[in-house]
Amino acid sequence: MNNSHYLTSQNGAPIADDQNSLSAGERGPLLLQDWHLIEKLAHFNRERIPERVVHAKGTGVYGTFTLTKDLSEFTIADHFNGVGKQTETFVRFSTVGGEMGSADAERDPRGFGLRFYTTRGNHDIVGNNTPTFFLRDGIKFPDFIHTQKRHPQTNLKDPQAMWDFWAQNPEAMHQVTILMSDRGIPANYRQMHGYGSHTFSLWNAKGERFWVKFHFKSQQGVVNLTNAQADKLKGIDPDSSQRDMVIAITDKNFPKWTVKVQIMPEAEANTYHINPFDLTKVWPHADYPLIEIGELELNRMPNNYFAEVEQVALAPSNLVPGVGASPDKMLQARLFSYADAQRYRIGTNYNQLPVNCPHAAKANHHQRAGAMAGTQCPFQGSQTGGDTSANYGPNTTSAALQDAAQFAEPPLRLDGEAARYSRYNQDDFSQAGNLYRMFAEDEKQRLVETISGSLSQASLDVQQKMLAHFSQADVDYGQRIAKALGL
To answer: Region labeled Disordered — which residues (predicted)?
Structure first.
């Protein structure tokens, strides 16, 4: 008889009774031989994997990227060549500092992690809804995140630690101004922009390299919440952004983003007045205007949140021929840390999970064994060249894998002495001041209220250090915050 409708155990055996444990008599103790009970409880105890250290709570959606401008002049990347080409995508939106149970409407940057399932492998752009970040060097990242998480003794959020860190690191001024402005609380994930944030590289068939920044402009417009609106929404619906996305996709109100890039020829980076690899800075559009290249549409919710959203393993190190890294120090650190975090959270074979394996390409390599090794990816028949292929290279088997030399990245010229550079012609205040002066009067008032409300909880010496930073960005900026703090 077809047992497709039977409840079964994990080994496929039909279960006659799933509601009553095996006991020694009606009122007696349970028996260890009730293997179904043991299986259910043991699996339940292991249903959770460690949450992400950052970006713990998020929303994932599948979609399509359509190329509207051919970029073969700049890159050999397949998904950026050929007008009209469509590529399957997956986007994970998230809040950064909160835990899995935190509210979606917190004042916090929003993660904007995009995966292209290209014919030459998965290409991930793991950015935020801000074009900049608090730091320019990844060695500071663990310390920064410690200040954003809970105090080790009280287990409460700690404004003193947060502002103390920023006071010692004025490079954060630009991003702090963004975070504390109206942009700090997006109303939902659909009505916000996304950015690759980092500088990446492109290279073309001639071996020419270009530096690039990715921008994703919401076609739904940008809508933000005030502190009062956010506080109310957090109490009414902590899952507001998740719910908003589910409703939009269910109603076929598919959100879209216009994809744009800024492109800088390689040689210009050496003389440009801003360090183009400094994540705390933006490239002025007057110097490097936005170039529209395509459209991103999100149109399908995952079937299983845990399997696809919780276990998706986005990483900046997922690069493809034609797209590479840059000397951006934060990016260089993330190239290691993100993939390493996925190995810790999910396991060494995390890329064999359906959401992570290449959907439009085949993975061929010599890596074997480890937890969950197998052929879990439904998009291809084998993890490697076949179960009988060699697990080393080079080899002389008939199925020997060859280097794809035609996709080699052109050499990057390096010049300089190995050292730990703490100061290098950096200006931590001009762009923060420029942003402040762009705000309308009412937004300046809300910015000052938000900063002073939080900064007032820090010690006086930290407040004074921060006031010096705000004043260097703009005198009026510092004076308003000083007045709000009663200083």
So the answer is: 1-21
- Angle among Cα 261, 173, 271 to the nearest 5 degrees reads 50
Check 55, 123, 174, 359 and give the catalytic one. Answer: 55
Q: Give the span between the Cα atoms of 450 and 453, in whole angstroms.
A: 5
Output the CATH code of domain 58-357: 2.40.180.10
For helices 475-485 and 441-455, give the axis angle rounded to 10 degrees.
50
Checking if the pLDDT of 144 tops 90, the result is yes
Beta strands in 150-306 (DSSP E): 194-195, 200-203, 209-218, 256-265, 291-300
55 is catalytic: yes
Question: Could you give the CA distance from residue 176 to residue 156 in angstroms, rounded to a whole number?
Answer: 21
Say how far residue 5 (Cα) sits from the centre of its chain: 40
Give the C-alpha separation, 58 to 462, whole Å.
33
CA atoms within 13 A on the CB side of 101: 0
The single residue of 36, 122, 123, 128 carrying the catalytic annotation is 128
- Domains of the chain: which residue ranges? 58-357, 430-485
Question: Is 128 designated active site?
Answer: yes
- The Cα 77–Cα 334 span in angstroms is 22
What is the per-residue pLDDT across 435-476, written as a single tens digit (0 to 9) for each?
999 999 999 999 999 999 999 999 999 999 999 999 999 999
